[in-house]
Amino acid sequence: MSAVARSPKVPWYRILYVQVLLAVAAGILVGAFFPEFGKSLKPLGDGFIKLVKMIIAPIIFCTVVHGIASMGDLKRLGRTGFKTLVYFEIVSTLALVIGLVVVNLLRPGEGFNLDVHTLDVKVGQSYLTKAHSTEKVDFFLNIIPSSFLGAFTSGDLLQVLFIAILTALAITFLPQRGQGVLQVVEEGGKLFFGVMGIVVKAAPIGAFGAMGYTVGGFGLGSLNKLLALMMGFYLTSGIFVVVVLGLILKASGLSIFRYLAYIKDELFLVLGTSSSETALPGIMRKLERLGCAKSTVGLVIPTGYSFNLDGTNIYMTMAAVFLAQATNTKLDLSHQIALLVVAMITSKGASGVTGAGFVTLAATLEAVPGIPLESLAILVGIDRFMSECRALTNFIGNGVATIAISRWEGEVSAATLQKSLLHAVRKES
Prior knowledge:
Layout: H1 16-33, H2 35-39, H3 42-69, H4 74-106, H5 121-132, H6 136-143, H7 150-154, H8 157-173, H9 177-200, H10 203-218, H11 227-252, H12 256-262, H13 264-273, H14 280-290, H15 294-307, H16 310-326, H17 333-346, H18 356-367, H19 380-408, H20 414-428
Helix pairs in contact: 1-10, 1-13, 3-8, 3-9, 3-10, 3-15, 4-11, 4-15, 4-16, 4-17, 5-18, 8-9, 10-13, 11-16, 11-19, 13-19, 14-15, 15-19, 16-17, 16-18, 16-19, 17-18
């Protein structure tokens, strides 16, 4: 009898990412051949995302509180937090710059000759209304919830982060009683992760409904000339992941391709649902399995959902300049630098807002004179296709950030990362 009992191999049809892929394929076929029925499937996708959002706030609260409070040393907390924010700002700005450079090289909007007078003005204005709530002083005031429990119902993750940090600091200042509170928070986190585990089993249904509605509502033919922007965005995001994030991960001691293979389950889940929130519990567990400290994972991942949106940043600069090209709006170097600076601010302001990519884009366009806000309407049809790439890039970026910060803090060695990854891959195979 062998010393280590092998766990029975799970049949392929019971693996979640396989189920999600099959559901995505089925949704595309239904949307393409039965568009009206495909459009009627929208509630399935919306319902699944609502289920996820229902449980995300308490998960992030428990995770952040436990992550910060378990550090104990406030100096270490400040050091890790500072390094995390510096990393986020550098990499996010790099994503904005890369998007700006690529869209100027490819020029996908050139020759579009869009007449904005033929577009629906209400589309741009509706997103601008949401964007106004995330600007300047309002942005900082909105971080403070109207009540402690109000943070959990607002849908704004920044509010949840705010009260979680305050709660964690309060626990660190408590003597022995603080450990009891921390244990309650830890057990609460396990409960909410368990609920999420049940919810995620419905991911194939959500993915089927979302894809059926997307293809049925807009059709594969709706891409038309916008296909150039889509392909450019996907290509740029791919280069960003392989080159920029790949180099960061290589410096940390891992291969980007092995890491992507390691988190493939979570990637397919994000792809099928167009939401990186659905894979939050899975990525946190896998990062801890690699050797990253639980406290660091609990701090970096939730914070990254608000401050490290690499895919959204690439999309913003590419989409803004594309609209300028499509409407024959001239943007000289000074205008593009202004666009970059504005995007650096607005990209932090719409976390937790539905349609965050469009909201931040609307806020950016308003701050850069010349680009007609009405032109946003032409992107509505392809936004769903773009959101999948945004979510995937954001998700990968936050995982890489956690590994980089863990290595920066000396919590785990390159050898340990490689050994843990190899062990995890063998265990799954």
